[in-house]
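Hi V.,

You were right to ask for the full record rather than a summary. Here it is.
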Amino acid sequence: MTVADSEGQFLITEETYTQVLITEATVGPQGPPGEVTAIPEFFSYTQSPASATWTINHPLNKYPSVTVVDSADSVIIPTVEYDGPDTVILRFNGATAGKAYLN
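Predicted structure:
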């Protein structure tokens, strides 16, 4: 296979064919605008007083990742359970106060 440009210059030969990526493209017309949905990207939750179980209802409409810090701002790792795309349940070994960051 050999590909040449409009001036007859070889752009691709059999030897280089497997190494070629698309280098030129035609851009078509812009499509219609998409629907805008106002769903927050992250959510923070504060637990006080201390509790061994935190039930967090959030507006993210997904199963978010969770980072938790205790009242001394140290990262701690609870057991994380999901009760659907809008509720996270965190379980600790003992009563814990702090913050949960969901995204």
